[in-house]
Amino acid sequence: MREITFGQAINEAYDEELKRDPAVFIMGEDIGQYWGGAFGEMQGLFAKYGPERIRETPISETAILGSAIGAAATGMRPVAFLFFADFLGVAMDEIINQLTPMRYMFGGKAKLPVTITCYSGAGVSNAAQHSKSFEGFLMSIPGLKITTPSTPYDAKGLLKSAIREDNPVLYFIHKKILLSGIKGEVPEEEYTVPLGKADIKREGSDVTVVAMGLMVHRALAAAEKLQKEKNLSLEVVDPRCVVPLDKQAIYDSIKKTGRLVIMDEEPKTGSASAEIAALVAEEAFDYLDAPIKRVCAPVTPVPFSPVLENFWMPDEDDLIKAINEIV
Amino acid sequence: MAVGKEKLIEMYRVMVRIRTFEERVIKEFAAGNIPGAAHLYAGEEAVASGACANLRADDYITSTHRGHGHLIAKGGKTDRMMAELYGKKTGYNKGKGGSMHLADITIGILGANAIVGAGIPIAAGAALSAKMRGTDQVVIGFMGDGATNTSRFHEGLNLAAVWELPVVYIIENNMYAESTPLSAACKLTNLSERARAYGMPGRTVDGNDVLAVYEAVGEAVTRARKGQGPSLIEGKTYRYRGHFEGDPQTYKTKEEAQEWLKKDPIPRFKSKLIEMGVLTEADADKIAREMNEEIEKAVKFAEESPYPAPEEALEDVYA
Questions:
Q1: What is the CATH number of domain B5-303?
Q2: A196 and chain B in contact, CB less than 8 A
Q3: Where are the domains of chain B?
């Protein structure tokens, strides 16, 4: 099968959905003819679809998301590109008070097919205002679906599903994966990946590792190492969406392994790992033969200097250390 | 400006309907029949009525926390509104929204909104949608004077202007943002001057003169429908009640309130219509009676309607 990059996969998903449905359009900062998105993943779309549908905006995150809501409520299917995930903070009222409760507040009589895309994650020395992952914070907001693709295959299939979804979806593009240029198999033919279905990225029998986004790659690297060095078999479960969360896939894996480590790039407190750990403790406790471990970032803002940032980000060594404590 | 008799009478009826509704809400709220909070529109009827008289059924509005008047003027049914205020299943929002979130997108009402200024970019988005879908629908974005000091006013009006969107923003300047007088919140007297900052036309009118509102908004709606972009209209008006029911209103003087009562938009329009030979006292009495009956029925409908089943709290999060 052909191999393409994460960015190419995202580009193809946008392209195919823009082509398929005239109600789909993208709006955001710097997405047009010059940059095609700050990291270039939208290059070529402006030339193909023009300024009406690849709609460059002023630096107005509130108006980007606010107008996406108005457009979606009246029949369009906007993708609001919010640039860095950190900028969700600028438009936070639109997320917590408008977009997500609107359907509910209106008694179920609004359909809001808004996809928010943005660059998340650390690892490229962008410091505290351009590096956040905050799935845990956002997954506490009812009404939002949240997806964190880790591979080109998932990136394409999940983005297509997000755009077709009749509910608000937050689609995180991990910038370290995007900028790494790593490639993965992506079929030529049309496919989608459903929102809310986990993927077992590596099968194993001794320890379950739940990881999202960039952490999936680090978990896979650790799995390779532990297999070679200690003949320890890790099963890497990638939920792909934190909302809806495929709890069953996680429970099924723990049933097999009896051990769970959750690897999450967020600061530990209130992170997605906290919710997953709580769910497992509530609903799958009997499967566990050891305490749940969490490998997360420390509870500090994201630091700048590579030395500090490397220390801050969870990596293979941190994961191996946690696994060694429970096997 | 020649306005047809039917249109004039309809604008008057809408104003009386709003006032009658609000006066009944005052009573039922005080009696404890309406939970939560109520932010009433009484005194500002000429703005909603005059503005919405320019709209078609398929046009859109965004409203505010003080939204009852906007909804009625856009065609909202008073029985379903009252039922929502009562928290009943038959309300517009099935009891999930209440006064501050009244909405019915099928009749173009994109919602009252309890976050000041939040409707401004939503209105721009609906206007963008109208433009992209190739319709000539127009959107009115209502806001109070307080909303003009929010960041969304800037972002929303700028976006509407740069994309030449078919939206008319209407400021109901009732002189107070909650308890704060406009003079303490903004250096301008005429808020429509802010339009210049976005390169769109701005105009201030007497918001208690329904015909002045109708004419100014009509011009702006025509511009928008022709694809000539957004406008900003300010109507100067006054709210008779507090920010919310129960507000002691210590920030207003009796003299000021008395002065504004003399400019009450409803008797003023009634006199004008009688003078024009369009309406008689008997007609006006009949309208008042009809509106009383309608609101009486609305209250009865609300009272007799069932509450939602408690488990319905779990529904309608996702489509």
A1: 3.40.50.970
A2: no
A3: 5-303
